[in-house]
Design a protein that fits this description.
With 299 residues, this protein is an alpha/beta fold. The chain contains nine helices and 14 strands. The protein has a six-stranded mixed β-sheet, covered by helices on one side. A five-stranded mixed β-sheet has the order 12-11-10-13-14, with helices on both faces.
Length: 299
């Protein structure tokens, strides 16, 4: 990005829309957030919504806008084909989809062919800029990164390029189990987070046996009053996050795992990782702006 050129950084997700106006050094000058995720935008209206919410920012001379997230999906503004891994800034820059050449572009997201026998494909949109931004902020070019959420991502980066990643439907399974299964009759979702019950769930997830069996214990622990209804929600969370962690191998020589997400979620993963003697550090929304700024500089 040329000196003095402002960047309009946009994170347009499924249910929310965030934007930041960055100066030439990457510092946030102003930010905005709206409940205008792609699901709320009628077909053909993305440009109109963008102009209504950020058009004043785009009046700046030579403004560049990069948009990451689900705006580049099939249901979004326009489909930006995934950039295949391994990929770093150079590959992402080559795969930008320009809506207005040199002015507004969609970041493509990443695809990865799995290491299993079927080479099962995996994808991400939006997380890729958070990953590179967090690495920039940490001053690292190699790391294991975790992005907790509805669909948690575990990512391997080597020498500045994403080499592999896996998605886990941890958050979505928690919502389904706690709201739409027999377990919902037992637990209280309004209870305060109980770290002791959460770590009990982490420990149970590391024991032999199927998670499908362990899940039923959420009901029976309440039935026999071993855990209160308020604590069961935290236990279920620990059980599912623990199952996610159980499948991972983290080298102690690779440096701390980098967590990227909301405070509430990164707190739980921090508790779980430290309980399993795995070092970690956390980043929040600043990773998105840092990643989009670094991508703009690399274009």
């Amino acid at each position: 990005m040329s000196p003095g050129k402002p960047l309009i950084a946009i994170d347009w997700g499924t249910t929310s829309l965030r934007g930041a106006r960055l100066d030439a050094s990457g510092q946030v000058q102003e930010s905005r957030a709206f409940a205008r995720g792609i699901l709320s935008v009628p077909p053909g209206q993305f440009e109109a919504v963008f102009n209504a919410l950020f058009g004043d920012w785009m009046q700046a001379a030579n403004a560049l806008c990069l948009i990451s997230g689900m705006a580049g999906s099939r249901q979004g503004w326009q489909e930006a084909p995934y950039c295949p891994c391994p990929a770093g800034f150079a590959e992402l820059g080559q795969h930008l989809l320009w809506l207005q050449p040199g002015r507004i572009a969609l970041v493509p997201g990443l695809s990865c062919m799995g290491a299993d026998a079927l080479h099962t494909p995996d994808v991400m949109r939006g997380e890729e800029v958070q990953i590179f931004g967090a690495l920039q902020l940490a001053g690292r070019d190699s790391a294991t990164l975790v992005l907790p959420g509805t669909h948690s991502k575990w990512v391997q980066v080597q020498d500045g390029r994403v080499t592999q990643f896996q998605t886990f439907m941890t958050g979505e399974v928690f919502a389904l189990m706690s709201q739409h299964s027999i377990l919902s009759k037992t637990l209280d979702l309004n209870g305060a987070f109980d770290d002791t019950a959460f770590l009990q769930g982490i420990d149970q997830s590391q024991q032999p046996g199927s998670v499908l069996h362990h899940l039923f214990a959420v009901r029976t622990l309440g039935l026999f009053e071993r855990l209160s209804a308020a604590a069961l929600s935290s236990y279920l969370s620990g059980l599912l996050i623990g199952e996610e962690l159980r499948t991972q191998t983290v080298s102690a020589d690779a440096g701390p795992v980098i967590l990227i997400g909301s405070d509430a979620l990164t707190l739980r993963y921090t508790l779980a990782l430290h309980h399993l003697n795995i070092a970690c550090q956390s980043r929040g929304a600043e990773a998105t702006w840092a990643g989009l700024f670094a991508l703009a500089c690399a274009c």
